[in-house]
Design brief:
Elements lengths: L1 H47 L4 H10 L1 H55 L9 H18 L3 E8 L2 H27 L6 E5 L2 E7 L5 H11 L4 E3 L2 E3 L3 E8 L6 H16 L5 E3 L3 H19 L5 E10 L5 E12 L3 E3 L1 H10 L2 H22 L5 E5 L10 H12 L6 E6 H6 L1 H13 L3 E7 L6 H4 L4 E6 L1 H4 L6 H16 L3 E4 L5 H10 L3 E2 L8 E2 H10 L5
Parallel strand pairs: 6-7, 9-11, 11-12, 12-13, 13-14, 14-15, 15-16
Antiparallel strand pairs: 1-3, 1-6, 2-3, 4-5, 8-9, 8-16, 8-17, 9-10
The structure holds ligand C2E and magnesium ion (2 copies).
Ligand C2E binds next to strand 9, helix 9 and strand 13.
Length: about 550
């Protein structure tokens, strides 16, 4: 159609140009005629002395040059017409070419504009609006065919932190790597979208793929550290899942509920959650908790519990771990697993850590004043590495409480080091320079190698309780725990087994040569007065 209209327009243009050329040619012919008449009259005048008809005929008959001149108008007219036609056609073709080029350019610009309004320029994935459209379409067809589908929200939990510490360019590089790993982990990667920042979404056709399987694959694909500028960066991820039609019948409800599932997933150990209506009650509760957390310190609602660490070599108390509790006026004891991640997402964690350190230092000072040689372990959070004033604060309470740095052990996790190894290393070196020692908590749940950890000034390694709890039933876990004990000791580290729940586990750990045990079998975390009473009555001496 467009082509036909173009050709008609070309014909019209060519005719108009031809008309113009013809006019010029006719004008040339008229001038040529006028020149012939003037030349003939002049020749007649100079030959006969007058301008008469016989003189003109005579001039024409005897002058060969005039004959040539007579032929000129004809030649000019023909030549003008011919050249005019050629030029007009050439000009027309040029116009058509340029019009086509412009038309193609406009079409591709239009396409580009549509593409960039529906895609994320960084990852090339569909953006939120295209994703919503696709989910809507998918709901319609699933409805018609009586099929089910799932929406999965995937979030880089520490994206803000990565952005804050590595800057925009490097965090963009990480996002691109995350996008590639997502494509690798998901079969049908046309259905992945980037909603915002570090949040991606997936539309999964349940007939083709099992959503839990997809979610596991994604989580697994993100486990290896990311590399930017030769730095290793750990990315913590979580996924929230909803199903159509069980959890909602329109895209807004589905995405909102996937958000609630994501919220629950963030605070869960597994890092993923399938939406459940009971979450609705839970999430406002958590949201209120989050706002109340900020006032908990001023309202004096935190308390420290202590759990013993006993030496398997000397059967004596080696030290204690300080574990925070929030005594909520309405909900009672709130577990740190519930509120520490909340505090980490806000700036409250700095105040929480400082509160714990002050309390633990004061209790430690009291024990030592009473002649009890107890080493107090305090947990530091990932966010504490971003608090440059922390070493000074610690120096301050150390002076105020008169404790010695060697009475304290600071517990850090592999994950917290890997999030920003440089910053972590700087803080660790500063505190180490002040005389503090470090312990790696939950060892085995992260992805760092012992060889890497050995670069840090570590004193202790705590094997995560998920490995310890099953050593009497699982040969695999027993082998892992035994090998870790040997390896750590060869590297000159003291080794602690967490989660010792019964006598059998304790005996087996002794057999393996483990240095220290901690767990419910020895004591459950308890408030300081209770702990002191237990200590006096227990079989363990200091
Ligand atoms: P964690 O540092 O690995 O602490 C050990 C956790 O294991 C404690 O949980 C303890 O009660 C529990 N546990 C000890 N022995 C056993 C056992 O035999 N069986 C079982 N099932 N569990 C045992 P808790 O007190 O709920 O603390 C959970 C986590 O919260 C801690 O894990 C630590 O990561 C964090 N946390 C606790 N206090 C603080 C704190 O003051 N600051 C920071 N940043 N994190 C803290
Ligand atoms: Mg700990
Ligand atoms: Mg632990």
């Amino acid at each position: 159609m467009e082509q036909a209209a173009g050709s008609t327009q070309l014909l019209l243009n060519v005719n108009a140009l031809k008309g113009q050329a013809s006019k010029t040619a006719y004008l040339g012919a008229i001038i040529a005629f006028a020149s012939i008449i003037i030349a003939t009259l002049l020749v007649s005048y100079f030959a006969t002395g007058s301008i008469t008809l016989s003189g003109i005929v005579e001039a024409q008959r005897t002058n060969f040059g005039l004959w040539i001149l007579d032929a000129l108008p004809l030649v000019f007219t023909f030549w003008g017409q011919y050249a005019g036609s050629i030029i007009a056609y050439q000009a027309g073709a040029m116009i058509l070419d340029q019009t086509n080029e412009l038309r193609n350019k406009t079409a591709s610009l239009e396409k580009q504009a549509i593409y960039s309004s529906t895609h994320d320029p960084l990852t090339d994935f569909p953006n939120r609006s295209l994703f919503y459209d696709r989910v809507e379409q998918a709901i319609l067809s699933a409805n018609n065919q009586g099929k089910t589908l799932s929406v999965l929200l995937f979030e880089i939990e520490n994206y803000k932190e990565i952005y804050g510490t590595l800057g925009r360019n490097n965090s963009d590089l990480i996002l691109k790597q995350v996008a590639s790993r997502l494509q690798g982990a998901v079969k049908n990667y046309d259905n992945i979208a980037r909603l915002e920042g570090g949040t991606f979404s997936l539309l999964i056709n349940d007939e083709q793929e099992n959503v839990i399987h997809v979610s596991n694959n994604i989580q697994e694909s993100m486990q290896a550290a990311f590399i930017v500028e030769r730095q290793q960066v750990a990315v913590h991820t979580c996924t929230g899942i909803v199903k159509f039609p069980d959890h909602g019948e329109d895209v807004d409800t589905l995405v909102q509920r996937a958000g609630i599932a994501l919220y629950i997933a963030r605070n869960s150990k597994e890092g993923s959650a399938v939406y459940d209506p009971s979450f609705d009650e839970h999430s406002p509760h958590r949201l209120t908790l989050m706002s109340e957390l900020r006032h908990a310190i001023n309202r004096n609602e935190f308390t420290l519990f202590y759990q013993a660490k006993v030496s398997l070599k000397t059967n004596s108390i080696y030290g204690v771990e300080a574990l925070i509790r929030w005594v909520h006026p309405k909900h009672g004891l709130v577990s740190p697993d519930e509120f520490i991640p909340m505090a980490e997402r806000t700036r409250t964690i700095q105040q929480v850590t400082r509160w714990v350190l002050r309390q633990a230092f004061e209790d430690c000072a009291k024990w030592h004043q009473e002649g009890l040689d107890i080493k107090v372990s305090v947990n530091l959070s990932t966010k504490d590495f971003h608090d440059p004033e922390l070493p000074d604060f610690i120096g301050g309470i150390q002076a105020a409480t008169q404790i010695k740095p060697e009475w304290i052990l600071l517990e850090i996790t592999e994950g917290s080091i890997m999030t920003d190894p440089e910053q972590a290393m700087e803080m660790i070196q500063r505190l180490h320079g002040m005389g503090y020692e470090f312990s790696i908590d939950d060892y085995g749940t992260g992805y760092s190698s012992l060889a890497y950890l050995k670069k840090l000034p570590l004193a202790e390694l705590k094997i995560d309780r998920s490995f310890v709890q099953d050593i009497t039933h699982s040969l695999n876990d027993a082998v892992i725990v035994n090998a870790t004990i040997n390896l750590a000791q060869n590297l000159g580290l003291q080794i602690v087994a967490e989660g010792v729940e019964d006598e059998e586990i304790m005996a087996q750990l002794k057999d393996y040569g483990c240095d220290i045990a901690q767990g419910f079998y020895i004591n459950k975390p308890q408030p300081v007065e209770e702990f002191n009473t237990w200590l006096k009555e227990s079989q363990w001496h200091t």
